[in-house]
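Ticket #4471: structure output looks truncated?

Reporter: J.K.
Steps to reproduce: submitted the chain below (317 residues) through the standard prediction queue, then opened the result file.
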Amino acid sequence: MFNFLVIASIISLAHTCTTVNGVTGACDLRLNEFAFAGANNAGAGAYGVLWYWTGVAALSCFYRHQNKNITEQLELGIRYFDFDTAYINASSATGWWEEGIVMVDGDAYSKSLKHALTEIDNFLGEHEDEVVVIRLKNHSAWAREAIKSTLQDEFSIFNNTQLNGERNPRLGDAIDRNWRVFVFVNEEFGRQCFKPVLEQVESVSHAGATVKCWEVNEIYDMIMSDERVTDEYYQVQVNWFYTYGLCIHELASLCDGEELYKIREINRLLRESTGRGVNLVLIDYVGSGDVRLADVMKKINEENVKYIADKRTQAGN
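Returned output as attached by the reporter:
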């Protein structure tokens, strides 16, 4: 009876779609036609410095990817959250260390995942036209089975909306039904898992720099080298960050500000070549620089809305 009442309450919060994440005309777009501003390893730094299991603080230079909490990231327009995870057993849960899935960067620990999920749920309760995507990809191998066995319980924390189990639905339907959280998980958690398995075309996952950010053609060529880029089943992701060469916050500063405008050009080239654009972009330190990734992604979405509408009109003639 309790579960029925919770579901009935959530359904009652649904309403008719007018915009999607502030973008007019996007209700008819499918998930993989929309572009989401994302935070790379969103939990690593969201609650201050990270800690080794020994109780020693981890150097932020190498471990901290964000300096805003999850609510602040949402207020900056982040709608795609990438979480690296491990697991804390009940026998080890004391004080700071809480039982369950925990956000990490390598061997450095942040807070439990449920803190981030609660902030997302609270935000979505106050913003009815917003849609959020969550990715659980990187994780400690030793924690894989524990994470897999508790995913269902961890994500039952949502009260203001429901998880959407469809891979590529119409976004207007997601908002109308109040199924506004999409969770994609690493295939190693198993295809029998209740979440859709990750199917992505990514630009790069490991690269270094010291003096400048990516060039448009570098990212474009990486994505185009993957033959799956034309398959709408796969999400197209731009990893707009580096992983070594300087401290993480210094690497982030190479690619913030006006450098973010390059992503619009990447989107345009992809659209011209494949008929589809960028779906997901991840950055470190989402609040840095004088240009917001969310503003760039909104422009991309406005361009894509017009492109897709024209394409559908031509197909109907």
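Triage note (M.O.): checked the attachment and the full token line is present. The two ends are 51 Å apart (CA to CA).
Status: closed, working as intended.
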